[in-house]
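INFO  loader      accepted 1 record
INFO  loader      residues=327
INFO  predictor   begin
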Amino acid sequence: MLNEFYKRINLNTELKNISESICQLYKIGDYIKDEVILIGYEDFNYILTTSKAQYCVKIFNKDRTMEEIRNYITRIKMVSNLDINTPKPLQVSNIYLQIIEFNNIEYRVCVFEHIDGKSFYELKAMPSDDEIKSIVQQMSEIHNLKLKPEFIYDPCTITNFTKEYDSKKKYLDSKYSKLFSELSMRFKNIELDKLPQCFIHGDIIKSNIMKDTNGSVWIIDFASSNYLPRIVDLAVAACDLCLNSNNKADTIRKTHLMLSEYQKYAKLTEYELEVFPLLYDLANAIGILQICYLNNFAPISEEDKFWLKESEKGLNFSDSDFWNSIL
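INFO  predictor   done
INFO  writer      dumping tokens
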């Protein structure tokens, strides 16, 4: 499994060598050990332990362009001073991105504070009601940020469903064909301009929400952040953080809680509430679409299997009774 992660960065030296260079460059103590984070997509992330503390290191995927990385860095700078729980990036001479070279391979690196805790994905747990309230409060703070960064195309973003479906539907299991075709047609009728837009995180799900040893929740990884309809954040968060795959009634209750809690900070429009069920379904569907696509080229990971199962359950729950109980 580690080799699959190493391929993301064309690792051609011992990870220890990169870590020791990071320790010297950032002046963060002597190297002790490193531990690869075996969840997440695209980039290579690991925990670096030094004589001073622990840090989270991100090495950008070899296939990312410098433009994509600069856009990511811009977002990190934007959110680093927000009044939310998110890991702060370290700097060297006021620069966030560092280049470390070994054997003619450049490793493009960012270093962050380490959160002493685990993601809800790692904990195999749902957020409690109070934790959902905390997440929603922090989400609203993100939405209040007056930022409009350069757009980043993300194939997993709801608003890209039609384009992604058209290009990848041939990879879908036939059992999804009719439903996904209908979802694509319905999405084309959404008037996106009627949906209030703002800076959104874009991927508030279990793997991007951490719970520290003091019980506080943290929002991490703004790689999917964009200027998009705010209701997208709620749809993505609800279809994962509120899903109790063994209890439809509890899923209804938590989804209603999330929407109600958000409206304490910002009133949702009638049109946002009208299209929310469709966006919820699209959030589940686009995850299934991407996993089916990946499965045609290599066996899917345990993480992919988890998201596939969760997304299928979310779609199964989503019917008229479900939404009549929520909205």
